[in-house]
Amino acid sequence: MLQSLFRTLAVPVTLFALCAELPAQPAKPTLLVLPFETAGIDSLAARTATTILRSQLGSQGSCSVVPESRTPDSPCAEADCARAAAGSTKSNQVVFGTLNRLGTKVVVEYSLVDCASGNTVASGTTSSESVEGLEETMRWIAAEIETRPHPPAGISSGSLPGARPGRALNAPRYTAVAIADFGEMYTVSGYNDTRRAFVVDGGVSFEYPTYSFDIFGGWRLGPMVNIGASYFMLPGETSPFVGAGVGYSFIAPDLWSNPFIGTADAGSSRSSFNMILKAGVVALRTNEIRLGLNIQYMEVFTGHADRALVVTLGVQGLAPGIRF
Fold this sequence. Notes:
Elements: H1 2-21, E1 30-33, E2 37-39, H2 43-60, E3 64-65, H3 79-87, E4 93-102, E5 105-114, E6 120-128, H4 134-146, E7 175-189, E8 196-207, E9 211-219, E10 223-232, E11 239-251, E12 270-283, E13 289-300, E14 306-323
Parallel strand pairs: 1-3, 1-4, 2-4
Antiparallel strand pairs: 4-5, 5-6, 7-8, 7-14, 8-9, 9-10, 10-11, 11-12, 12-13, 13-14
Helix pairs in contact: 2-4
């Protein structure tokens, strides 16, 4: 009888012992997806895009995603803000970013940050050709984030073997904008004593969400070219900007003057490098056709103190076929 009892107990006891030796499965990490900051995107479209991202990450099964009902309402665009928001939900990692409209395109910047270490696990910039295309873009971002390590709860990504700060997953995207400006130049000194002149400029600007690289040329009492950069202070429809550039100018004598600049005193043609400091405002920035007001201080280093203030109004349009 005792042998029969031992045999009966042997199997469950052995199984219990084996299970006791198996390592405990670590808890799934908790992931918080914050609302994205927006510029030029309506709140319903932005909320829908965030919901798609949250749903896609939750369906992967590698982490536990905080439901929308427990997600803070305020968006974050900086890691410190996002980590503070994640603390209220006791999340291990947090996803945050921005949605910026640029013409018909929507530029999406996103980051995945480990809350314990502050390390950026993944980050990148991509774009959608339209608001309607954000669904596919968010699915792509979810797939990219899923390839990054999700450490078990209680473990920082900085302590994982091979863990490293995040990197951009692809190059920043930009849009080329064609520019045509017309206005007046008011000379401060030099320029063969001409007091004011009609000016015309044309060029192209390679715009990122908050800054641009500009290449333009025109006629300012002679032909000139300039290469520079501008910084946009606001992300919305209307944004002031500041910038600077360097280039080269030819100053023509009266013989080269056009009918718009009036009479200039006799002088000699000359040329040298120029410098421009600029400020202004761009209106309707999220549309394909925009308006721009530019105020510039320009100096040409000819040794004749050729300095002027230039005020122009212009039309800007997305350059077809030059979108990246």
